[in-house]
Specification:
Shape: globular
Strand content: under 5%
Structural class: mainly alpha
Radius of gyration: 21 Å
Number of strands: 0
Oligomer: single chain
């Protein structure tokens, strides 16, 4: 395989240094991704309506649900590719890339059609406010029809992350972010297309980023050049990828369902409260970007080192990453608790929406460090090929505990208290993740590169 200068062998050198160097491009890329998501919200919140702002916010967990199968495939691909790369078995890398794209071609059309068809039934389940219904339907229908670009980008990123190359995914996202922002202003401010324009800008930018990613991989990594129509499905490799990716995908699907169940309750309090949830969620997601980047780095780091049978080194990196994630979260918690209203006002001039956003932040941010630790530990275990426990843990804590607690608190103490259900779920999930990680049971699969 031709080595790209931005690839990274993480089986030698400082574990903390590798994780930091790998995380920074991912962080910048995630910032670009959040930037154009925030611009979507800012444009519709300031130039369309609060109903449009609520529509964009409601669309996020629904799209995560539709994307989750392929994001799971991307996660499984990252782990398997990282382990083969760490073990020095480049033929395994080649086979994994082919298998990922062969599966993509088989499933993308039915998943896209199902997503478009399911939009209206999902909106009924979510009890979307009538004032926001048409905008939400339009946004979800257009973005669902363009799933191929979003999913294709995630697959390319998963392949490169497994090779230790996180800088190139930054380039892909930077291109998508700039294109999305420019098209937002053109379609919404110049053409007056409203929510349709925001959705169209999103799918066009993501499709371009995916196609550029294909060209980049084929140009810089000729030994794993991707020719989708010629890709062959290796069933043994598919079982390894699917064994890791299916639990990860199911986890994301079920968490999205849990979020939509919570949204069903949130939407009953009116469009201002729902829009406030969207704004608060944007801000906490922005604060969480470094944790996501660290987690992705840990998955690749642990994958490469487990592939090379360096378990102690995998442990060292995981401990350093968890500590860094907790410290960062504590800092951002203080910032958002002190100035949450200032940041919220950036998205909308509507005072009730700002107030609803501050309610969300005041409840969610204090226990956020628990979620960051949970997230990093689950990512480390997934990098070792243990994907079932993270799925069970997240589903139990974020759905079976959090959602009922939110409904109970809302019904007995009002909507201002419902978001404390987040922290209750995180206490359970973080405790379980620490216990399982310390037990060492997550190492039972050993190296997958055999």
């Amino acid at each position: 395989m031709k080595e790209d200068s931005s690839g990274r062998n993480m089986t030698v050198g400082s574990p903390a240094g590798h994780i930091l160097a790998f995380s920074l491009p991912l962080l910048a890329g995630s910032f670009f991704q959040q930037l154009y998501n925030m611009v979507d919200s800012w444009v519709v919140g300031n130039y369309v309506s609060d109903a449009a702002l609520a529509a964009v916010g409601t669309g996020f967990p629904v799209m995560t649900l539709f994307n989750s199968l392929f994001i799971g495939l991307s996660t499984g691909g990252t782990v398997v590719i990282a382990q083969y790369y760490g073990a020095g078995k480049k033929e395994g890398v080649r086979g994994a890339v082919d298998t990922i794209y062969a599966a993509f071609l088989r499933f993308i059309l039915p998943v896209t059609l199902a997503a478009v068809v399911l939009v209206r039934p999902i909106l009924l389940v979510l009890r979307v406010d009538q004032a926001a219904y048409q905008d939400t339907w339009m946004y979800l229908t257009v973005v669902s029809a363009g799933l191929v670009g979003t999913i294709g980008y995630n697959l390319n990123a998963g392949i490169l992350n497994g090779l230790g190359n996180s800088r190139t995914t930054l380039l892909f996202l930077a291109i998508a972010a700039v294109m999305n922002i420019v098209l937002d202003f053109v379609f919404v401010l110049a053409f007056r297309w409203g929510v349709f324009g925001v959705a169209l800008a999103t799918i066009l930018a993501q499709a371009f980023s995916w196609l550029y990613g294909l060209w980049y991989i084929n140009h810089h990594y000729p030994d794993i050049a991707i020719h989708p129509l010629q890709a062959k499905l290796d069933m043994e490799l598919f079982k390894k990828i699917f064994g890791i990716g299916l639990p990860a995908g199911l986890q994301m699907s079920l968490v999205s369902i849990g979020t939509m169940t919570a949204l069903s309750k949130i939407n009953t309090y009116g469009k201002a409260f729902a829009a406030g949830f969207n704004v608060g969620n944007k801000l906490d997601s922005l604060a969480f970007l470094p944790i996501q980047s660290i987690s992705s780095a840990v998955t690749a780091f642990v994958g490469q080192n487990m592939g090379a049978n360096l378990e102690d080194r995998a442990n060292q990196g995981t401990r350093a990453a968890t500590a860094a994630a907790v410290v960062w979260t504590l800092i951002t918690t203080v910032v958002l608790l002190l100035w949450g209203d200032v940041f919220s006002a950036f998205f909308t001039p509507d005072e009730p929406v700002v107030e609803a956003s501050v309610i969300y932040l005041n409840c969610v941010m204090p226990p956020y460090a628990l979620f960051s630790a949970l997230f990093v530990l689950n990512a480390a275990m997934r990098g070792a090929g243990e994907s079932v426990f993270p799925m069970v843990n997240v589903v139990a804590s974020l759905i079976l505990v959090r959602v009922p607690c939110m409904y109970f608190l809302a019904n007995h103490f009002g909507p201002q208290a419902m978001y404390w259900g987040y922290g209750i779920g995180w206490v359970v999930g973080c405790g379980a993740a620490i216990w399982y990680y310390r037990s060492g049971k997550w190492k039972h699969r050993g190296s997958l590169a055999k």
